[in-house]
Design the sequence.
């Protein structure tokens, strides 16, 4: 079959193009640009790429057109496909129909942690001999691509709650035909799609209601909204937590991890299943939030796929994580530089606490870029100051979306003042391209051997990682 993807150079669409090629289809795709790394990846996959959006790209007519959610309703190529009567689908609907209908779909959902958890579930299945298929919204370091078409029964997919396409305004994960799923957290996000917290919660309730009755839904017990969503499912519900968590009244976790002090770069923990100790295990991931993700992944595979817990324990040590999730990108002059995708205040808080715990020596510098649709708005204005408590110095870049009205925009100077009032150093910078250079200069003057710098952004952030490494190298 000839499948044509409009907006093919996005992370999800590019991975889907590779998946289609692996399944033996002819794949073509169009986009406005093909920058590295996705442009190079598409070429390596064997995808025929076309620059720009043009109805001529649909001649001769493909058997199926997949329209990415980057496309607006005025997109001339998408418009030509739809108005011309060609078969077309959103990316989630096409994934569901072509790959998930005949496999056991394991969907990892949640406001936080879903990329890491999806990669971990995929790796544990692979290491335990199940040869899974997967589609991850990031590059899992145990694999050479963010997708795979395996021969096993399981297909692991990251369950994004963002909308599907301009003609299909439903959450992506509603189309993933879940046999089983994880809900790591439910905390209002994507305010451009979900203007209210109730609307956001309803998306997860709708996801849980779609899980197969014979399957299982694994949910984070301390999160009342995650538990409430899970209980909308006809499937069996399994709850997980840490021993240090506070649970809502009437909620009891079956899978519980009791953290032990980190040692040799690993996070040890005792695992209790139904109140019985299953042993001591070691995770290579730092932070309480990642320990929760680990327990969720193990619970899903044990309860849903029958994977033996001892087998997962051996595989867990070898998990390498995901690029841009607590990724150590350089150590220069004794200063560690980490890259992380965190942008929601809860994710910022958890990530910084994890790094503080992992590197108790030296000082911690947090560099935060408000760039996502939610982070640039004042929805979580009052939650951000406390999110930087683990950092000795917080450097907050200007809001990355100047088109947001002032009365809706995140007030960065107010956050900086609030961080200072909490007893920590903090600064912000004048808007414009020079802000990155100003941040780099501030870090170069401040940092000394033994310190850790955490760059938190869901974008390229003006190449700040390389500029930091260069400046710290020159200063050492």
Sequence:
């Amino acid at each position: 079959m000839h499948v044509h993807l409009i907006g093919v150079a996005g992370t999800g669409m590019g991975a889907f193009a590779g998946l289609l090629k692996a399944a033996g289809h002819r794949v073509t795709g169009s986009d406005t640009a093909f920058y590295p790394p996705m442009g190079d990846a598409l070429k390596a996959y064997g995808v025929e790429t076309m620059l720009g959006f043009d109805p001529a790209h649909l001649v001769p007519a493909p058997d199926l057109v997949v329209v990415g959610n980057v496309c607006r309703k005025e997109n001339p190529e998408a418009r030509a496909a739809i108005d011309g009567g060609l078969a077309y689908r959103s990316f989630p609907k096409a994934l569901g129909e072509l790959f998930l209908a005949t496999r056991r779909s394991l969907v990892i959902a949640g406001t936080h942690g879903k990329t890491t958890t999806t990669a971990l579930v995929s790796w544990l299945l692979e290491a335990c001999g199940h040869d899974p298929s997967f589609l991850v919204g990031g590059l899992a370091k145990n694999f050479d691509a963010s997708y795979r078409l395996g021969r096993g029964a399981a297909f692991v997919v990251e369950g994004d709650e963002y909308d599907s396409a301009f003609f299909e305004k439903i959450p992506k994960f509603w189309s993933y035909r879940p046999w089983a799923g994880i809900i790591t957290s439910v905390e209002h996000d994507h305010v451009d799609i979900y203007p209210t917290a109730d609307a956001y919660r309803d998306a997860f309730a709708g996801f849980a209601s779609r899980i197969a009755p014979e399957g299982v839904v694994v949910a984070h017990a301390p999160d009342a909204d995650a538990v409430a969503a899970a209980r909308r499912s006809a499937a069996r519900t399994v709850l997980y937590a840490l021993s240090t968590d506070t649970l809502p009244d009437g909620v009891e976790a079956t899978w519980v991890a009791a953290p032990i002090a980190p040692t040799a770069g690993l996070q040890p923990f005792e695992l209790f299943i139904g109140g019985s100790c299953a042993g001591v295990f070691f995770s290579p991931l730092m932070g309480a939030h990642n320990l929760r993700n680990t327990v969720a992944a193990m619970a899903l595979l044990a309860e849903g796929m029958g994977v033996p817990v001892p087998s997962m324990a051996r595989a867990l040590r070898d998990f390498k994580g995901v690029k841009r999730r607590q990724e150590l990108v350089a150590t220069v002059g004794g200063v560690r530089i980490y890259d992380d995708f965190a942008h929601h205040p809860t994710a910022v808080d958890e990530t910084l606490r994890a790094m503080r715990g992992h590197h108790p020596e030296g000082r911690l510098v947090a560099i935060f870029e408000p760039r996502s649709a939610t982070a640039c708005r004042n929805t979580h204005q009052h939650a951000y100051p406390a999110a930087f408590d683990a950092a000795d110095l917080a450097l907050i870049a200007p809001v990355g979306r100047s088109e947001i009205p002032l009365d809706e925009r995140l007030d960065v100077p107010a956050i900086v003042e609030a961080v200072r009032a909490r007893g920590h150093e903090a600064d912000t910078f004048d808007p414009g391209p020079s802000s990155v250079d100003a941040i780099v200069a501030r870090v170069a003057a401040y940092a000394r051997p033994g310190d850790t710098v955490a760059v938190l952004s869901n974008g390229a952030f003006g190449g700040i990682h390389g500029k930091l490494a260069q400046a710290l190298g020159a200063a050492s």
